[in-house]
Amino acid sequence: METLRERKKRRTREALVRAALELFTTQGYERTTVDEIAEAVDVSQRTFFRYFAGKEDAAFAVQEVTEARFVTAVRARPPHEPPMEALRQAMLEGWDDIRETVESVVPVGLYLRMYRMIESTPALLAAHLRRSAATEETLARLLAEREGVDLDTDPRPRLTVAVFAGVIRVTERQWSTGDDFSPAAIRGLTEAYLDQVGPALTGNWRAA
């Protein structure tokens, strides 16, 4: 059971995240200061730094939660599923759960606008790729444990995660530069591109 103090801290943190994302997506990441984020929530700069090391942590706070939920979903997949299928099903079957997680902190529309901004902001994109690499290593270790193989000598866990992560990156890029920015659009692209992994890797592209 969450105590009153814990609930107050969670609400302050969520308010700071929402204020940060709204400011980032309306006036730009580089032009937004920590003072402005704190002022929007009517707290001090010192309070902001109790929750986040800096702007970057606030920018990726929701994504960090969704990635943690995804790792948990992969861990819970049935043991008979092949590794790539486990990743695919964890993503697609957990979509609504991940969306609910986002909505508990910020509106999904705001979260998706922030995703688009990450793609067009060099500092954020670099941070996104760096953070994604850490998550990919966590997933590779999880797959190695799940399949009973040695991650240090068997390249398959990292290769599988690299392919999966590549699909997600292509999806993000295509969605962020398209005309439909809805949650349904990015989910549809994700599913369609994951379905193309097998044919893309093993098929003859020149076949009639």
What does this structure look like?
The structure is a single chain. The protein is mainly alpha-helical and 208 residues long. It contains twelve helices and no strands. It has helices spanning 4-27, 34-41, 45-51, 55-59, 61-75, 83-93, 95-103, 108-120, 122-147, 156-176, 183-195, 197-202. α8 (108-120) crosses α9 (122-147), α9 (122-147) runs antiparallel to α10 and α10 crosses α11.
What is the structure about, briefly put?
This protein is mostly helical and 208 residues long.
Determine the structural class based on helices, strands and strand pairing.
Answer: mainly alpha
Task: Provide the low-confidence segments as ranges.
Answer: none
- Strand percent estimate: under 5%
SSE order: HHHHHHHHHHHH
Total count of helical runs of at least 4 residues: 12
The pLDDT mean sits at 91
Rg calc: 19 Å
Give the helix/strand layout.
Elements: H1 4-27, H2 34-41, H3 45-51, H4 55-59, H5 61-75, H6 83-93, H7 95-103, H8 108-120, H9 122-147, H10 156-176, H11 183-195, H12 197-202
Helix pairs in contact: 1-2, 1-8, 5-6, 5-7, 5-9, 6-10, 8-9, 8-10, 9-10, 10-11
Give keywords.
single chain, 208 residues, 0% strand, mainly alpha, 76% helix
